[in-house]
Amino acid sequence: MILVSAIFWSVIVLTCPVFFAGAVLVWLVTAPFDRRRSALHLYTCAWAVCYVRLNPLWRLRTSGRELLPWHGGAILAANHASTFDIIVLFDLFRPFKWVSKAEMFRIPFIGWNMRLNGYMSLVRGDRASVRRVMARCDELLDAGSPVMFFPEGRRSEDGTLQPFKDGAFDLAIRHQVPLYPIAVHGTRKALPKHGFILRHNVDVRVEVLSPLSPTDFADVASLREETRRRIAAALAENGNAS
What residue ranges are annotated as transmembrane (predicted)? Predict the structure, then answer.
């Protein structure tokens, strides 16, 4: 596993500059007419997913992709057990914007591409940063762009689904946009929270669940808990192998 892990990370390091150069080209060509940067995001999806497809230890399946909109505001909410959740969620191949921790934007090439895409940098525990991100989410939803959240706020230590924070659900209620629960299965077995050694041959699955309409819920808390319940049930059906 150490050798395979070394090869995998080496491939990422060596190819990121090439992929980033392609991202800059896509951005330059499409920026005049693609204000939502959808083309660049779809290029980024292909960039990320190629690493999964080329990894002999992984099998990736995505179900329910057809439920997601190509246009119009929406909230996407997924569980978070591994760094690789970010990579496999790109297999959705839909134009959404990420809310991600600020540290991700400091990674050479990958973080620069995130800035090109207009993804949002969140500093944990910084109220001013939270306000800025929420204001930007308001703008994106009004402009018809879906936004992706990890409502747990951080990766789970042991794969157990943590309590959800209110932000994503407050946005869904205020903007009256559909919320799509997404269950990510199997990524923790590939790479736990601490460490860089790929551990297992894994079957990774991204499962888009039926959307929730904010009009069916009395408040933020009820929408939040129903989203968590649905993701928890989906994970339990798969042996809680998040």
Answer: 6-28
Residue 161 identity: L
Q: Give the domain CATH number at 204.
A: 3.40.1130
Comparing C-alpha atoms, which of 93, 39, 42, 33 is closest to residue 69? 93
Measured N-to-C along each axis, helices 220-237 and 167-175 cross at an angle, to the nearest 10 degrees, of 120
Specify if 161 maps to a domain.
Answer: yes
CA atoms of 64 and 80, how far apart (whole Å): 18
Quick one: pLDDT at residue 3?
A: 76
State the residue range of the domain holding 79: 2-237
User: With contact defined as beta carbons under 8 Å apart, do 52 and 88 qualify?
Assistant: yes
Give the mean pLDDT of the chain.
Answer: 90
- Is the predicted pLDDT of residue 158 greater than 80, yes or no? no
What is the pTM assigned to this prediction?
0.91
Residue 11 vs residues 15, 18, 51, 64, 83: alpha-carbon distances, Å: 6, 11, 8, 30, 17
How many domains does the chain divide into? 1
Establish if 187 belongs to a structural domain. Answer: yes
Residue 242 lies in a domain: no
d(CA 43, CA 180): 23
Give pLDDT tens digits for 46-60: 999 999 888 777 889
Q: Phi and psi (nearest 5°) for 81?
A: -125, -5
